Structure formats: structure tokens, C-alpha cells
Amino acid sequence: MMISNLSVSVAWLQYDGALGDFAFLTVINPSMSTDATLSGLLHIENTIPAFSRLEPFANLLQDLQTKGWSVQDDFFSTDFTQALVNEVEGVRSVDMLQAGVGRKQDHQIVLEARRDYIQWIDPNTVIRTDFLATMEALRVALNSQLFLGLFDYEAHFARYEEGAFYEKHLDAFKGQSTRILSTILYLNEDWQDGEGGELVIYDEKNPSIEIGRFFPKKGRMAVFLSECFYHEVIVSRRTRHSIAGWFRVNNTTGAVLDPDQ
Ligand SMILES: O=C(O)CCC(=O)C(=O)O
Ligand SMILES: [Fe+2]
């Protein structure tokens, strides 16, 4: 089983690809990665239990160490994912912002680059509060397993209407961003071939090479190192919902606080 593999086989992995500046991520403490430890790390006092299986999280840890990205299906429990689907479907388009490129403060809307609508997630409903608490637990778990020094998490719902896309981009530029790990959770029932909207991930060393293409199907979670992997969203042929988020490091210097979002 994946978790036992983790605990016995992973000590010091040599990896000089995606991790680059993140060499510290290649070290895992084998004694930490038992089923009991992982399940303890993922135990969260939510209204709806977020996890029903450890395997997707164990796979995610393994993938991040070895290649710097991971896509896992049924990452959360069915009920938890369904509550998020209901939540995003209930958001009125008038209450969403046309997404800009860069931070929220930029108010920059670059229609050539992306065409989705977003709403930042604050803990103002039960499921939003649960989601943020769950991602906080994941932050702590990732730090304890991969020594990433992640400091916080920000996330928004995204709605791509028919015809929307997000052209090839990086979520963070080296030395210019506090974003370390990007996460995208997909919230769409029965995505079919031909409906577009795939996430395409490109090779970190040669970004003209496609290394993965994924339907935005309900319950699927994509995670990758924000500075390392170009990715894009192919034109969607139906409404496409997701939660995009970023684990960040703290970049507070002196009296200047690093603004979020
Ligand atoms: O929704 C996706 O598949 C990717 C979204 C994305 O790349 C972003 O919001 O930065
Ligand atoms: Fe992105």
C-alpha cells in the first residue's frame, strides 16, 4: 500500500528537477509517514468529514516529492465535495468578479489571457469555513511531511462560462511571489469528452511539452509547484466550476505586511 511504501522507502530522494530551489522538499521523515500519522494529520473537526480515505493524500505526498505535481481523484469525501458543488452552484454571477491577472488589488482584467469569474473564499458559510479549516490542516500536514514552510492559504471559487479559458501561464514568478503550491479542486458533474475545459500541464524544463491533460471532473484535485509548471485551461464548452488556491510562504518584511489575495 502506498502509505507503507512511503514510510519504508522514502528517505533521501535525489531530485533535481521541479524542486530546484525547493531541494528541502526532497527530505521526508520516514518515521512520520505512517497510516496513523497521516490519519491524525487529516483529522479535522468539521461539520461534514472532509476525508474518507488516506490514499489520495499519501499519493499526493509521493508525487510532490518525486515530480513536483499531482492529480488525485476523490481527494475529499463525497459529501464534502458535494457540499462545495452546491455552494459554488449557488453563487450568483453578479456576485463574482471578472478575474484579473496578478493580485486582486491590481484590478487588471486581461481578457486575452483569461475569462473566468471568481469569488474569494472567506469563512462566512459552514462549508466555506470547513473548506478553509481543511486546507489549513493540509498546510500543516504538508509542512510536517515535506518541510515546505507554508504559511497560509488563499482560494477562490472560479466559474468559466461557455467559451472561457485561461491561457498558458505560471502562477508565480521566481523571487516575485509568495505562492509555493497551487491547488485546484474541480466541481463538475459528469464531464464529457468534447466539452473542453481541460487543465493542461507542461513540462517544467521544456514548457512546450505537454505532460498531462485532465478533465475538470468532480472531486479531482490538482496540485503543483507554482513557480515550476506552466499550465492552461482549454476553452470550456459548458459552465465549469472549481476552487483555485495557493499555499504561500510569509513574505512579511519589517513593518510592511504582505497583503493576501
Ligand atoms: O482551473 C484550472 O484548471 C486552472 C486554473 C488556473 O490555472 C488558475 O486559476 O491560476
Ligand atoms: Fe494557474
UniProtKB/TrEMBL annotation:
Q: Give the GO biological process terms.
A: cellular response to hypoxia
> Pfam families in the record, alphabetically?
2OG-FeII_Oxy_3 (PF13640)
Name its co-factor(s).
Answer: L-ascorbate
Q: Which terms in the Gene Ontology molecular function aspect does this entry carry?
A: ferrous iron binding; L-ascorbic acid binding; peptidyl-proline dioxygenase activity
Provide the alphabetized UniProt keywords. Answer: Dioxygenase, Iron, Metal-binding, Oxidoreductase, Vitamin C
Give the Fe2OG dioxygenase domain ranges.
146-249
- SMART domains tied to this protein: P4Hc
What is the name listed in the Swiss-Prot or TrEMBL entry for this protein? 2OG-Fe(II) oxygenase
